[in-house]
Amino acid sequence: MYPIPSTWKGPRSVLRETGADVVDRLSVRPPQLGDARSLAESELVCFSDPWPPQFFVSEILAAGRFNRLLVDPAGSMVAYLFCAWQYLDLHVLKVATLPPYRRSGLARRLMALAEDHAAEMGGESLTLEVRQSNSDAIALYEALDYERVGVRTAYYPDGEDAVVMTKRILNSEF
After folding, report:
1. Which of 32, 70, 132, 134 could hold 79 in an S-S bridge, CB 3.0 to 4.6 Å?
2. Stated pTM of the model
């Protein structure tokens, strides 16, 4: 999607493997302060409006967060998820998969982790915003049973609208 910066320390090439092969070899862990630089570099590759390193530091240190990294056996981050609780709603702030690992089921795995966490904590829903032009992400969220519930006009810095999507937790009474 976006060029890999010259400062990038992550994997530059990945053997083509099936999604199951990649997913099975990854481990899940919460991000640490030392991950902020790598996360910020990944943002430059994954998003046109990347978070700066201090945003990641703030989110890593903040209470009421559910943040996870998927890392390969060598310890390199390949995908990440950042969420914040807003009352009984787990708000997905960021979900990203590095380009060599896309279409391997990693975003789906991270979203499942978020949903499991929300259910375990007694949450009622998960909510996210996604660029209106990001049809691949919207299709993924719809496949995961998220519903379009609104639009945030000119939500992104470039003026693009965001589609607001929500999923009710199955164990919720609401």
Report:
1. 70
2. 0.85
